[in-house]
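DUF1471 domain-containing protein
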Amino acid sequence: MKQIIFAISMLFLVSGCVTRKIPIMPEAKVISPISEMAAHKLNCEIVDTYVLEKSHPNNVLPVLKNQTFLLGGNRYRVSSVLSERRGKPTSVVAEIYSCPNPYEIKPAGRVNLLPGAHDVKPITFSEIENTDCKVLTSHVVDKTNPDNIYIELSNEVFMRGGNRYHITKIIDTDGANPTSLAADIYRCKHQSVDFH
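Predicted structure tokens:
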């Protein structure tokens, strides 16, 4: 009898509990959520309302991204959660938005990290205690795509002879990610620490 229960348990583990994962279409990977305030601030137009019912919690995000793209939108906002499973939504009502691109289009397109700028990092409290750091200047990264903001900051720190930065103010966001910020640029020289 124990062998039968064990075999049935293994069968459920192998086959019965697997839900097919819905892939995100390549064109929909750039679609992201937006808050109601950000949608108003960016002058977004509501394209449609979409109701997703009885989905696996892991498939809610891919379905919303894909459906937003198919309906001609570029952002979405979950306006209400209809049902949940283990604290994760399974049925939702989402507003689909079309938002203008608020970012300046750079002549070179996507910003690339300069050779040497890959060592530029945010400054940590332990580095301040164990290194000799000097503030070189402050810099403001103008409004740009959130994917480029830290690359632009790292490039600027490197070009000014620094190797660390400390963000002092987030000036603007897209509702979730910074799009403009101010930072202090540091040049830190590592000191050896004697732990004896």
